Amino acid sequence: MLPYKNLIIIDKKNTLPVYRQVSLQFISLIQEGKLSPGTLLPSTRVLAFDLQLHRKTIVAAYDILVSEDWADNLPRKGYRVSPDLPVVRPRSYNSKKLSPFANNANFDFERLEPLVHQVISLNKGPLVIDDGFPDISLLPTKVISEQFKKSLDNAARGKNTGFNLNEVSNFRISLHSFLNRTRGIDMGIENLFTTRGAQMAIYIAASLIIKPGDKVVVSEPSYFIAEALFKKLGAELIRIPMDADGMCTEELEKILKKDSIKLLYIIPHHHHPTTVTMSVERRQHLMQIINTHNFAVIEDDYDYDFQFKYDPYLPLATGDHGGNIIYIGSLTKVLGAPFRLGYIIATEEFLKAATTLRTLIDLKGDFIMEETVAGLINNGDLARHIQKTNKLYSQRCDVLSDLIIDELGDKITFTKPTGGMALWLKLKPEYNLLQVIKKANLKGLTMTGSSYCVGKDAHFNAFRFGFASLDEHQLADAVHILKKQ
What integer is the mean pLDDT of 267-271? Predict the structure, then answer.
């Protein structure tokens, strides 16, 4: 017999009658598959003893189950789960058998192409090379679950389900302290705004700046989702080439001598997709250009927390930019995809407009998750997790780099990054990346990292190999499969 005394919990503070609490929990056990159709239920006397309830309470609960067709009362045998369980079917206004959503809509709307920069549809194999995501198996799950429960309990006791975006939350206070310690950005709490991930932050910032016809400068190549957003807002993209020192700021200066721009989008740390970190000289030159021409800059803080050098570069936003830089980042790259937490650092006036815009799509934010991460920051757990994973990711970067050089050095070129979670691998011209992806997939290796090998990007013939989420054996297996293609 199932341990009903552990499965059926009576809440004496609940206004719902006890017999109804019992019946509802039996229904949940049936719906969850823990009680199969035809299963005999414990006698009213036995269950009453187990749950420390009066037998009449159990009889009333069973009578509810019988009346709602969840159970049968068999003479001289007792109660059992009904072999024919009820199926709730709401009444429909549709008189046709075919669902109305099976047809195409009769109104016009904009049909957008998928944004995933993957060249073919792939069957997901047992081994996946991603775009550069953290290894969520390394998360301190016990600590996080305890903090989550604490945040949920606090919210329940305080009848609190969220906060207004104008309020200074615990998360903002904790994040402000964390960013000051790790980035060295001179800012007040009024200069920090939280979002659900970096992509929302980019969307909000760009939407407030770009008007149709505005010129926006991006690198070549660049983060393709940001590019798609700028185009959607009506921007004309101007592309600046990349080299080993980052975006070629000399080319940007040439453009500005003959044209004006509205926005520069730049990823100075571990650039996506190339993983290049901008040199000190380029940073200094870019700051001079920003202050001379006074255009808006979105600095995308990509993978900043994972830097393998002892003395990492600070963000551009730490310099004297007169408020022109809008600094954007995310804790998703630290904690993984389940944690959609991003932020914007900008002038107070700009963030007031950002608050209004965000309210149109998201009124409250992820209150419980934000409170949870605030606790992780305050307890030092987030800093410890970053320190631990940074060391491990550095080792995995070394392992993969050595494997590529030893096993694929005649086919692939790359520059080992100083941080981040991915390598930018360029295949030599005689090897077609599209064909490699297809063949590797047949061998059980799925390459989901951003691939630049078709259309205007065909000349790159390159892709991102995320190493952070794979252990050393998986990295070796992936390289072994690639070597055979």
Answer: 94
- Would you say 199 and 344 are in contact if contact means Cβ atoms under 8 Å apart? no
CB of 264 closer than 8 Å to CB of 251: no
pLDDT in tens, 48-102: 998 999 999 999 999 999 988 889 998 888 999 988 876 544 444 445 555 666 6
CA separation, residue 123 to residues 120, 438, 440, 442 (Å): 10, 10, 11, 8
Report phi then psi at 370, rounded to 5. -65, -40
Mean pLDDT of 121-149: 89
Query: Which phi and psi angles does 110 have, rounded to 5°?
Result: -80, 125
Query: Is the model's pLDDT at 110 over the cut of 60?
Result: yes
Q: What's the burial of 474, exposed, middle or buried (CB within 10 Å: 0-12/13-18/19+)?
A: middle
Q: Are 134 and 421 in contact (CB under 8 A)?
A: yes
The pLDDT of residue 164 is 60
pLDDT digits (tens, 9 = 90+) for 333-365: 999 988 899 999 999 999 999 999 999 988 777
The per-residue pLDDT for 91 is 47
Beta pairing, strands 462-466 & 422-427: antiparallel
pLDDT higher than 70, residue 159: no
Q: Is the domain of 176 the same as that of 319?
A: yes
**DSSP per-residue letters across 214-265:** -EEEEEES--HHHHHHHHHTTPEEEEEEEETTEE-HHHHHHHHHH---SEEE
Residue 9 tokens, joined: 């919990």
Q: Are 293 and 325 in contact (CB under 8 A)?
A: no
Residue 282 above 50 pLDDT? Answer: yes
Question: Are 147 and 264 within one domain?
Answer: yes
In contact, 370 and 341? CB cutoff 8 Å: yes
Residue 463 main-chain phi, psi, to 5 deg: -150, 165
Closest CA to 315 of 193, 222, 183: 183
Q: What whole-number distance in Å separates Cα of residue 463 and Cα of residue 413? A: 11
Q: Kindly provide the b/e burial profile for residues 89-128, where b requires at least 16 CB atoms within 10 angstroms of the residue's own CB.
A: eeeeeeeeeeeeeeeeeeeeeeeeeeeebbbeebeeeebb
Residue 47 included in any domain: yes
CATH classification at residue 447: 3.90.1150.10
Could you tell me the residue range of the domain that residue 402 belongs to? 127-133+385-483
